[in-house]
Amino acid sequence: MDFDVTVIGGGVGGLAAAIRAAESGKKVAIVEKDQLGGECINRACIPSKTLIDAVKLLSKADKAKWIGKGSNGELSLNYEALNQHKNEVIEKLRGNLKHTLDKYGVTVIPGRAEVKQEGEVKVGEKVITTDKMVISTGSVPISIPDFPLNGKNVLDPWSAMNLQSVPPKVVIVGGGVAGVELATLFRSMGKEVTILELMPRLLPVPGMDKDVADAVKSRLEEKGIRIILQAKSKISSADEKVRFHVETPSSSEDIDGDLAVITIGRKGVTEGIDLNSLKVNVDKRGYIVVNDKAETSNNKVYAVGDVTGGALSATKAWRQGLVAGDNIGGKQSKMPKYMPLSIFADLEIGSVGKSIDDLKNEGIEVREITVKMESIPRALTVNEPQGFFKLVIGKDGRIHGAYMVGEGATEVINTVSMAMELSATVNDLYPVTFSHPTITEVVSEAVQRAVSGEMY
Ligand SMILES: Cc1cc2nc3c(=O)[nH]c(=O)nc-3n(C[C@H](O)[C@H](O)[C@H](O)COP(=O)(O)OP(=O)(O)OC[C@H]3O[C@@H](n4cnc5c(N)ncnc54)[C@H](O)[C@@H]3O)c2cc1C
After folding, report:
1. Rounded to whole angstroms, how far apart are CA atoms 17 and 28?
2. Check: CATH 3.40.50.1820 for 154-264?
3. Does ligand 1 have an atom closer than 6 angstroms to the CB of 305?
4. For 3-141+267-328, which CATH superfamily applies?
5. Would you say 295 and 316 are in contact if contact means Cβ atoms under 8 Å apart?
6. I need a surface site. Which of 31, 34, 134, 239 has the fewest CB within 10 A?
7. Ligand 1 site, residue 328, Cβ cutoff 6 A
8. What are the coiled-coil residue ranges (predicted)?
9. What is the per-residue pLDDT for 63?
């Protein structure tokens, strides 16, 4: 046997599984046909956040009256330098990963893996024998008939983010996480941005709080982004310009853009892996079915990350990879109860737990405590008083959910996620002290209000 474990796909899910399994003494190989780090590091989370964080500095500086502007009253962006910065961040993270894999003695095998039967992985002409395997082959954007990608001006998110220069008018299809983040990016670069969303609200993501979604919509509109909800749209032509025909319950219009970014439509990658002969079950959309230990229907095969469907997020992929690696290494490990979601929009969003509507539908009695960010001193010192934090509490004081829109929401939400995973009640959290002045004090304030009264 060449390896105890062979991991197919070196994205965040596969890397986590490989590192954890190796850490517990297993002989591990990871096969990657492109670059280590997969979507998240090379094409999605990291490049998008590097660009968004950088351009948000512009909007922050723009609204800061005390910052001097050029003679035309505007700040300027050197997009070439920014792209260079983005590439350096990606390189650095890829280097860190390679270092960790080397440290744990994981063998990296470049090439495309094919699997025809259990226990064997073929890479090029070479056949590797392995006891267990982890399928972590991710997902890819697909071209859908109403929005055919053309590699020119109808692009998937990564291709759009990788353009050397972005044209003036951008139309984004999909008002989900990627749509909202890309709208933030392009608008902060001064582009005219329209979002077309089929559903009646922005961010139609499971568990998303309606008030948060509404607040995000208002903020993006304030920034000049046009958002069309309940938009049944299709591309009618894509030559020099991309023309959309858009129907809503109350209107019908044609919208032209120089660039269309299609954020909807992905599928799991399983080409070359004979799931039938492996006796690995898939769901009706072709995603591999796993339990909360990342086990498939074949006890020699684990699957992690986007290829298992559900939330397509690096947060989940990484955790599922750790769970698979731990279980392979003999440690009992399960997926957590809560998976926080962070969205890096113009005003950040953090969410964990179920939405109030979902909880009510399940017959769970809850109450909510809402704290406006304008009452938190740090939100004023950083000049970002918009937004709110909402804590959803059960009768027994247990926290069922937390939602935030505001500066630092993507960090704050992890604090609550930790408390929820540990089943802490508001009474447990009451004596916990947060340093001052910090944005996280909003959690403390909500807890104080739940147990006693208002402090701020
Ligand atoms: C624009 C955008 C922004 C995003 N931002 C965030 C974010 O901020 N936070 C977040 O949590 N998530 C984010 N995501 C989602 C996140 O990128 C993915 O959920 C995550 O990368 C999935 O990781 P994975 O390991 O499952 O798969 P991938 O990262 O797709 O890795 C799979 C790897 O497998 C390799 N592979 C496939 N088939 C084979 C084969 N046969 N042989 C060898 N190698 C193979 C591929 O080359 C790839 O490297 C974002 C997505 C997009 C599109």
Report:
1. 10
2. no
3. yes
4. FAD/NAD(P)-binding domain (3.50.50.60)
5. no
6. 239
7. no
8. none
9. 83
